[in-house]
Design brief:
- Belongs to the Gfa family.
- One of its GO terms (molecular function) is metal ion binding.
- This is Glutathione-dependent formaldehyde-activating enzyme.
- The chain has about 140 residues and is mostly beta strands.
- The chain has one domain: Metal Binding Protein, Guanine Nucleotide Exchange Factor, Chain A, CATH 2.170.150.
- The protein has 2 helices and 11 strands, in the order E-E-E-H-E-E-E-E-E-E-E-E-H.
- The strands form 2 sheets. An 8-stranded mixed β-sheet has the order 6-7-8-9-4-3-10-11.
- The longest helix has 12 residues, at about 125-135.
- The radius of gyration is 15 Å and the shape is globular.
- The two termini are about 30 Å apart.
C-alpha cells in the first residue's frame, strides 16, 4: 500500500495487517492532531520510504517515536523504538475509505466527554496499553 504526506514530499509503502482502524485518545495524539489519531497496524519493518528527505522523527516516549513530514507537518506513523510494532496514519494511505472498519479506541480513559463515535468499538485504558507495550518491549 502506498502513502504520502499532505505536500507529497514524504512518500512511503507499507504492508497492512488488515483494514481495522484504531483511535488513540492520549494527550500526545490529541495535541499532535487537534483531536484523535486514526491509524492502521502494519507488518513490523514494512514501512519503507521512497522519499524521506522531509521525514522527521520525534522521540515521544521511553518506548515510542512519531514520524512526520517536516515540510507540511503531516503525522505519518507511531512505532516502538524496537520496531516490534508500528501503525500508520490511515488518511496518509491510498486506501479506499469504504474498505476501512473502526475497530478500537485506546486511552479511552482520556477521551473528552464532548465527542463519541456512533458504532461500538473495543476499548483499552492507558494502564492496559502501557502494560501491553511494556510486555512487548521485554520479550
Amino acid at each position: 500500500m502506498k502513502g504520502h504526506c499532505l505536500c507529497g514530499k514524504t512518500q512511503f509503502t507499507v504492508e497492512m495487517l488488515n483494514y481495522d482502524v484504531h483511535v488513540c485518545h492520549c494527550s500526545m495524539c490529541r495535541r499532535q492532531s487537534s483531536g484523535i489519531m486514526m491509524t492502521i497496524d502494519i507488518v513490523p519493518n514494512s514501512l519503507a520510504f521512497q522519499n524521506d528527505s522531509t521525514l522527521s522523527i520525534y522521540d515521544s516516549s521511553e518506548w515510542g517515536e512519531r514520524g512526520f513530514c517536516k515540510k507540511c507537518g503531516t503525522s505519518l506513523f507511531w512505532r516502538m523504538k524496537n520496531n516490534e510494532y508500528c501503525n500508520v496514519n490511515v488518511f496518509a494511505l491510498d486506501v479506499a475509505i469504504e474498505d476501512l472498519y473502526l475497530d478500537s479506541e485506546i486511552y479511552i480513559d482520556h477521551k473528552p466527554e464532548f465527542y463519541a463515535f456512533k458504532n461500538h468499538t473495543k476499548h483499552m485504558t492507558e494502564a492496559e496499553v502501557v502494560a501491553l507495550f511494556s510486555q512487548s518491549g521485554n520479550e
